[in-house]
């Protein structure tokens, strides 16, 4: 049983791959299951197609990634593009605005997300999260050049909390990104657990985790529903230590990769790296990771 807990192959279609051929290719991936993330209003439809074609393999995840939430407006209906982006991103947004899509209201975005959750009763919510290092890229630049614009944390939090509330209401586990945002992530989790009914009854996966060892220990002590997953795509000098510090019953492995053909080898690499850090044998480890995945997916509290 080999599961990729978090991946992004919709990027292949964004880069120009034929969509029908892409849907077919998912069937060739030598994994038992893979959690296919969406990131914005555009790729949720692709995730739905792949999941419909391969219902036993593709676990769809619907959500708005922190790198895309600048395209969402908290006002309904949303203001004109230049007003929205300049208010959100400041005067530096002027050179970006002509290249950015008209904003969509969070209300409409959540309605779309909810419709996908209803249509796919086994879907996860993802990818959602917080990122304090990301800067919005300048469009059509090769090599890619970054603008100075960052989406304010308060805006990211508003979109994240709304998505987590929806996930809690529908009892769906979530796949979450947290980069340079340990403090706000810990505060948000504590607040959601205290105030949002159902939040403690869904699994929350901190994917490609780069929290510090003390932050991860604190989060897993406080929240029985927080899982963590490791990839070889994102590693820091603390990763080995972090692998050893995480609760072995709440660890998953993932490719965090954007091409079908690479998911299985990269997931296997992540499992091998985790096994090497923790001194676990491959057979025993694969069985444990598979049962961890099922506990996260249909969240069931670990009794240890
Ligand atoms: Zn991701």
UniProtKB/TrEMBL annotation:
Q: Which GO terms describe its molecular function?
A: hydrolase activity, acting on ester bonds
According to UniProt, the name of this protein is Cut9-interacting protein scn1
The taxonomic lineage of its organism, from the top, reads: Eukaryota, Fungi, Dikarya, Basidiomycota, Ustilaginomycotina
């Amino acid at each position: 049983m080999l599961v990729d807990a978090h991946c992004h192959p919709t990027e292949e279609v964004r880069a120009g791959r034929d969509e029908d051929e892409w849907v077919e290719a998912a069937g060739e991936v030598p994994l038992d299951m893979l959690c296919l993330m969406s990131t914005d209003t555009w790729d949720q439809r692709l995730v739905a197609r792949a999941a419909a074609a391969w219902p036993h393999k593709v676990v769809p995840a619907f959500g708005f990634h922190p790198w895309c939430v600048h395209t969402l407006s908290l006002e309904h209906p949303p203001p004109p593009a230049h007003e929205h982006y300049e208010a959100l991103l400041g005067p530096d947004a002027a050179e970006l605005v002509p290249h950015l899509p008209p904003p969509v209201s969070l209300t409409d975005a959540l309605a779309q997300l909810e419709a996908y959750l209803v249509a796919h009763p086994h879907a996860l919510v993802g990818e959602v999260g917080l990122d304090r290092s990301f800067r919005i890229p300048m469009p059509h630049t090769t090599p890619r050049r970054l603008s100075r614009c960052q989406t304010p944390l308060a805006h990211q939090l508003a979109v994240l909390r709304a998505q987590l509330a929806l996930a809690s209401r529908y009892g769906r586990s979530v796949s979450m990104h947290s980069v340079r945002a340990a403090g706000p992530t810990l505060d948000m989790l504590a607040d959601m657990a205290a105030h949002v009914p159902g939040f403690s009854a869904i699994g929350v996966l901190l994917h490609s985790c780069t929290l510090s060892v003390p932050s991860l220990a604190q989060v897993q002590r406080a929240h029985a529903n927080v899982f963590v997953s490791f990839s070889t795509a994102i590693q820091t000098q603390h990763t080995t230590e972090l692998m050893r510090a995480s609760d072995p019953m709440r660890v998953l492995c993932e490719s965090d990769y954007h091409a079908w053909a690479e998911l299985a080898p990269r997931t296997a690499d992540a499992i091998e790296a985790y096994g090497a850090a923790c001194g676990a044998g491959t057979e025993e480890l694969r069985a444990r990771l598979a049962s961890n995945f099922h506990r996260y997916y249909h969240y069931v509290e670990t009794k240890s």
